[in-house]
Structure formats: C-alpha cells, structure tokens
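Repro:
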Amino acid sequence: MRDQPRAASHLLIGNSRWHWARQGGDTTRFWHGLPGVWPDGSSPRALTAWAAVGPLPAATPLPPAHRVSTGDVPLQQLPPWIGVDRALAAWEAWRRTLEREVADPGAGPVPSPARSLLVADAGSALSLTRVQGEGHFAGGLIQAGLRMQLRALGHGTAGLPLVQGPAAEEPLAAHEWPVRTADAMLQGVLRGLAGAVQAAHQRARRQDSTCRLWLTGGDAAWIAPLLGGPDGAVPGWLIRADHLVMEGLIRLRPCCGLRG
C-alpha cells in the first residue's frame, strides 16, 4: 500500500480485499488493502460511493445512501442477482468501447453503436461477462480464480503443498514444463485460467467477429502474457484495464464537481 493517498472517495468491499480509489482533480489513485483496515484520513462519512460483494463490516457502519447496487448500474437487461462488481466492470468496458469508437471512427467496420465485448475479471473468482453492442447484458461464466484453485489443490490432496500465488515482484518460471511442484501448480492453474478466457472469447467471436476482450482484476498481470502469441505481442482484440470495477463506480458516482 505504498504511495497511497490519505483519504479515499470510493470503496469496493471484495471477497478477500478492500479496493480503494481517490478521485481528485485530473488524477485518480487506486490501491487495495486488508478487509476492515481504513487508510489514514479516511472515514465512512467521507466516501462518495461504495459497493460490496464481500461481507459488510459490523464494527464500522457504512452510509446506506452512498451504496451502489446492481440495480443502479445502467446496463440493459441486467438481472438483479448479478454481482455489482461484474455489472460495474461490464458497464465501464462498454462505455469505454463507445468512447474509443467515437475517438477512432476509422477503426474498421463497427456495429452500431459499438462492438460487443467480453469482460474477464480475474479476482477471487474468474468471471466472464458478455455485453452486446447495444449495451445489453448477454450472460457469462464463473469459475474459481487463481488462489482459490491453489487452495483447493493444497487442501484437497495429501501430497501437494499450499501455494499462495505469485508475489508482485516474483517472475513466473520461464520453463513451460516446470520441475518444482509449486511452479507446476502455479503455471497449471494460470494456463488453465488463460485457456478458459481464450475459449470463451473464441465462442463470443463466433457470434460477433469484432468482439473485444477486456481483461481486469488482481490477477490480470499474470494472465495477460499467456493470451498473446509466442512472441509475447498483445493481440489487437485484447484490452487490459486493471481497475475497471472501480472506474465504473467512479463514473457512476463521481465526486462532487468531478466527472468520472
């Protein structure tokens, strides 16, 4: 949590972490921390907006009037049982797709008003959410994320270790067929997640060949390199945006006098 701002304006209560943002002037800062731990200078009363997919804190009540729920997200045909994080990420990706097409009208054949898209949010769970070009929710898939799968392997077998996941500064083993058990588990799960994302995107492109893939979430950095070609080049259909959920929350509920 190095370099974090002193006061937060937006909060997402996740399943394993709390995600924070501070919107001010022309800049927005993002960071995350342990559940229930408030940054210095921050308080529930200072929040412009908050949302939750994880358990709410009993010790620190949050202002109900500032809560954003799935029903507040203006994505068409959105079922009320969809998690607010999926809703915000999908809506933000759709809005940014519209903005990209307006900024670059010569980007090729574009269905009106925008290309369809698939959002892959790699967090505690890997969620895959489709949005049609007109801004309609079009279903999706959910599976266990990186650390959840690693915990299941460690707890559900007698001979495999508990692997926490890669550290931020730790490079993955370069060898495609690791020798160490922990490396084999980590690479196996990561490649499985990347394969699930690629397969879902291929199915979506069979319905709309212009469908773009937006990759977000805490484990996006580890999955993104596995989605490119052998040379590591980023495919033209892949857009990585690590803070889609928080950016959607800010766009929906910007600080007073500021645009999201």
